[in-house]
User: Fold ABC transporter substrate-binding protein from Plantactinospora siamensis.
Amino acid sequence: MNTNETGGGNIIDNLWTGLVRYPNDGSAPKNAVAQSIETGDSKVYTIKIKQGLKFHDGTEVQAHNFVDAWNWGAYGPNGAKNSSFFSDIDGFTDVNPPAPEGGGKAPAPKAKTMKGLQVVDNYTFKVTLSAPFSIFPTKLGYSAFYPMPDAFLKGGNPDEFGKRPIGNGPLKFVSWEPNVAVKLTRFDDYALDNKVTLKDVTVKLYQDANAAYQDLVSGNLDFMQTIPVSALAGDKWKADLSDRTINVPVPTSAKIDFPFYDSKFRDVNLRKAVSLAIDRQEITDKIFSGSKKPANSWANPLTPGAKDGNCTVCTFDPAKARQLLQQAGGFSGTMKFYYNGDASHKEWMEAVANQVAKNLNIQAQAVAVPLNAQFRAKINAHQLDGPYRAAWQQDYPDVENWLGPLFVTGGSSNNGLFSDKEVDKLYREGTAAPSVDAAHEKFAQAVAKVDQDVPSIPVYFYNQQSGYSEKIKKVETNSKGPIDLSTVELAG
Assistant:
């Protein structure tokens, strides 16, 4: 509930299992912990869970472990980053009241629990939404909706629990050495069909993507999700790894976000100018050797409900960019483009900065923050004074996931603090629509307003290149891109 970045999220997705899970082929969600999810009106959902499933401490997963966890995540004073994922549930604003429109501190909550959550018995609970929302079941495989054990719910310290988490997934936590490795081991009492046959798994944390790649080539790393730019040139990675490669499109987009809390970036013409000054085709061709696709829409087109080509500022038009910059009153000083230096982002972020400098005739510079943990801390604390690298890895297969968390006021990953009342209104109309198709139509209207506001800059769509070692005979990546450890078969 408090992790909204992919590095931690990938580990959490192995430590926990939710009500539903998403098949690797991108098809509709399948029940996992849920026995059934039923509704007659898309507003009241009755959820039954399978009996006999356990947390890693041996306690049984029951209905209250979902209800109490969701109430904890939604409760404003707890400060969970993913609290907005519970905003569909009746009573959310009672536990998480919004801050005043003019700014300032949010008022104290009227309640500690949402009236829309009710435990029926040990294996059944009801969820009443504030309005019908047909996409709600699709969201339930996201990590914000995972159950929490009584060890946490009965007064556990969130920070301490985060250092030694207890989940209900196929792997359980062993140890975590910050900036070095997280060690996991198989949970032998796991009873669902995505069991892991591997005994132990170590997630290595690198400060440099090229160092990780060298470990992959030498056999000291068994799987690398994203091959660095340096190895893509001339298909070097294929020569290094032979047939131990994976090359698949994934519903993930790279983008650059604007800090709306910095007054320098509040003029929409400036934001449009920056976007139009970027030659996405040159970046994907020269930096990524054609392995990525220039972004032309706000949601990745692999996503259900997404519309291809709806980003009107994703074209390269330096003349129009300079005209818009003039209308914005120009830009003084150096425009800094921030990125985390421990992954393979230096080349393309420098290309962006150089293109903006050249095509707008201003000073621009790419600035590395050494570690992603430091980078994310600055983003979450709203401490960046320039545009910054971002990406969105689809949490669940619906275009709503590319709108609510990113562009709705208070969204869990709306880190730049963008806010537009019309976007919020159209989004809420979409979530209350009577069908998925009707919802998608409203979401499309909201995205069209986002396109006018330019809160961020879509740059490229991922085509993921991954590699694995000679120790692995078979492996698949999941629908979002990370390794699916339940598919791994070792050689020999």
Remarks:
- The chain has a mean pLDDT of 95.
- The two ends are 40 Å apart (CA to CA).
- The chain has two domains: 17-164, 249-463.
- Residues 87 and 93 are 8 Å apart (CA to CA).
